[in-house]
Structures are given as C-alpha cells and as structure tokens.
Amino acid sequence: MDNRSIGVFDSGLGGLTAVKEIMELFPNENIVYFGDTSRVPYGSRSKDTIIKYTHSDIRFLLSHDVKMIVIACGTASSAALPHIKEDFNVPIYGVVDAAVYAAVRKTRNKRIGIIGTTATIKSGAYTKYIKDYDPNIQTFERACPLFVPLVENGHFNTKVTELVIDEYLKEIRGAGVDTLIMGCTHYPLLAGAIGRYMGPDVELVSPGSEVARFLQKKLNSENSHSPKRDEHRYSYYVSDSVENFEALGSIFLEKEINGQVSKVDIEKY
Ligand code: DGL
Q1: Is 194 helix (H, G, I), strand (E, B) or coil?
Q2: Using CA atoms, how far apart are residues 267 and 28, in angstroms rounded to an integer?
Q3: What is the pTM of this model?
Q4: Would you say the CB of residue 187 lies under 6 angstroms from ligand 1?
Q5: What is the pLDDT of residues 220-242, one digit of tens each?
Q6: Which atom of ligand 1 is nearest to the CA of 78?
Q7: Which of 168, 192, 207 is the C-terminal boundary of a domain?
Q8: Is 214 in the same domain as 90?
Q9: Which end of the chain is more exposed for a tag (fewer CB within 10 A), N or C?
Q10: What is the distance in angstroms between the CA of the first residue and the CA of the last residue of the chain?
Q11: 1 in a domain, yes or no?
Q12: Residue 201 CA from chain centroid, whole number
C-alpha cells in the first residue's frame, strides 16, 4: 500500500481525460494534476523546448511527493519521454504505448488512423510502436494543430469545430481506417463530433483512458494502491488563470472543481 498521490500533467485541459478515468478506476487514489496553461500548446514547439517543459512539470509534481508520474500528454510522451525517462527516480508512464496497445487489439482491417499535434506526428512515435507490434498494419497520420485551441476555448461541439474536423479528417476517413487513435489527450473532448464524422464503424482510442487502464495493471502488480478510505484528495494546479480551467474542467469532469485549482509559477521548477 502506498497512499502518496499519483502525479498527472498535460499542457492544459487534455490530461483530465486520464484523470477522469483514474478517478473511476481507482476511487481511493489521491491525484495531483498540473496543467501548464501558460505554455500551451506544446505541440507546435521544438523537441528541445518540449523536453525542457517536461522536466519542469515533473520537478513540480515531485515537489508533491508523488509515487508515480503520468504524462497525460501525447506530445510530451512522444517527443520528450524517451529522452528523460532515466533522469528521475520515479516511475513515469506516457500515453503512447498504452494507446497503441489498445488500437492494435481493436483493428480488424489493419488500417489505423493517427491524429495528434505537429510535434507528435513529426516524432513518428505512434507508427513506430504500431509497426513494432505488427508490421502489416498500415497507418494514416495527420497533425491537427487547431484542435487544441478549440478545446481550450470550449468549442466542443460547434460549427467551427465541425468545419475543422472535415478539413483535417477527410483523408483519413477516405482511407477506410476502422480505428482512430486520438493521439493528443485534448482530442477526446471532441470525441462526440469526431465520432459522428468518422461514423459508427470506426473505433476511437483515447490515450488518457488507456493509460489509466495500464496503471491498473501496474498498481495491482506492485501492490502500490492507496488504502481504502472515505476521503480522497484531488488537487489541481495551472500555470495561468484558474478561472477558465475551473469552468471547463468542471464541465468535463462532471464534478465541481471550483476552489480546488491553484496557480503555480512553473518557471521556478
Ligand atoms: N494534450 C496534449 C497532447 O496530448 C498537448 C497539446 C498541446 O499542448 O499542443 O499532445
């Protein structure tokens, strides 16, 4: 048993897709969440900058004595994690392998679509892992840089979102994929609109949810669950204004987080 918190971070709201699943799967776990809202988006930045941000995000979470770190960000998981894994003395889990593990089991026609930020698609990480599993699977990739600002501004289901989805996903839909990895943790917040566009025969994979399922195995095998108790603690930190995060985070988590979000100066870490 280990009642220290699980540390989770993303560049903004997207990592809440992992938090929501962790809360459902492990109701006894404490969670410290960091959304780097002053530096979002990560996906249009260089690899060096993403590595630098990832280092400071992890240092911040470690200052809360967490037992493990979940990089609930496709960009940091694909562009930074392979380079920083050895720099810290704590288990660090990214979303890429968890999402790939789910996708290769779902696909029937061996055609998988992958959407992500510019940095994620440039890293080629998802395709690489998929080919490691099965070189016969074909992948169809597309960077969707406008999705993150749409999510951060609450455009979950609007006309403008539908237009952008059509622009980005037309070719992947035309390629006949039966599985689509929403390779950035922000994108599942658009899952309703993306699902309608892709049609009922395409399975959507959410990396945030998948990494939570992966943790289930880890916590079980290492016996590092938190003990059962009546109260759990969830704390949220952001590096910019708390109001927007509180409003959109409460909608997404379907639980009031007003008053639980604090601002942190991430440049100090
Ligand atoms: N949610 C992130 C990801 O999974 C980051 C998006 C961004 O900041 O560009 O890639």
Answers
A1: helix
A2: 32
A3: 0.93
A4: no
A5: 777 667 766 656 689 999 999 99
A6: 10
A7: 207
A8: yes
A9: N
A10: 29
A11: no
A12: 24
